[in-house]
Write a structure and sequence with these properties.
three-stranded parallel sheet, alpha/beta, TIM Barrel, binds fe (ii) ion, 11 helices, six-stranded parallel sheet
Length: 250
């Protein structure tokens, strides 16, 4: 499996706190069947983002863990006008494996009115923004998600949501998104080895059991590989019609 979203780079954000914890996270991921791990530290108002530091840490960690698992660079990019110029002028600094796919995170409370505009600009500049964990953001799901997918932006849900780690609402929302064919990646969004661990295998088994092995392969292996190679995603189906709300009158 290939994990495109993980906060294992140490001391940069709210993820791993030390090199030892980073190594433990990488080893846990490898033991769970992950072959490629993208380090995606936050880039937002709270955490500074330093490509040089990231590169140095990736090199150091790769040396520590050996070649059984491949470590790659990326970023968990906060979408805002202030950040937009940065990503347009130095794309490879922020994208997954220095290619064309960009992980984008939304604020949990409210969506800025310019958001659609920003995503249009990203698409016009040949970037493919990946919408991260909408199952944990109702506003995003209800207001914007289908339009963004219609613009060619794929969606990543978090493995832990499928296994109930973020509560019943996130789990049900993740399942509904899968059933509506609005999911293109599953990633760990790991932050440590205990509360938010870098494991994918349980979520993969659930997807295979409920939506089929082919979908599981697409979401955990083939789409992530295509994103790392900057190719179009092999699995990007037409979404199912939105479920109509039913009203009952008594
Ligand atoms: Fe994240």
């Amino acid at each position: 499996m290939i994990d495109i979203h993980s906060h294992f780079l140490p001391g940069l954000d709210d993820g791993a706190k030390s090199v030892e914890e980073a190594v433990a996270m990488i080893e846990m991921a490898a033991g769970d069947g992950t072959t490629h791990l993208v380090g995606t530290p936050h880039c937002n108002d709270r955490f500074a983002f330093s490509p040089e530091r990231n590169r140095a840490l990736l090199g150091e960690l790769q040396e520590r863990v050996g070649n059984g698992v491949v470590l790659l660079s990326g970023c968990d990019f906060h979408v805002s006008y202030q950040n937009l110029e940065r990503v347009l002028t130095e794309k490879a600094t922020y994208t997954l494996n220095q290619g064309t796919y960009l992980l984008t995170e939304f604020a949990n409370y409210g969506i800025a009115p310019q958001t659609l505009n920003i995503f249009h600009r990203l698409r016009l500049n040949e970037l493919v923004p990946i919408i991260t964990h909408p199952e944990r953001n109702r506003l995003l799901r209800e207001k914007l998600l289908r339009r963004l997918v219609g613009m060619g932006c794929p969606v990543q849900i978090t493995a832990g949501s499928l296994t109930g780690r973020f509560g019943a609402e996130a789990q049900q929302a993740a399942e509904r998104l899968l059933t509506e064919r609005l999911v293109h990646f599953v990633a760990s969004d790991a932050h440590d080895t205990r509360r938010r661990p870098p494991r994918l295998s349980r979520a993969r088994a659930r997807v295979a059991a409920k939506w089929g092995e082919e979908v599981a392969r697409a979401l955990f292996v083939e789409n992530p590989r295509a994103a790392l190679d900057s190719r179009p995603l092999p699995y990007f189906p037409e979404p199912a019609q939105k479920r109509k709300r039913r009203f009952w009158f008594f």
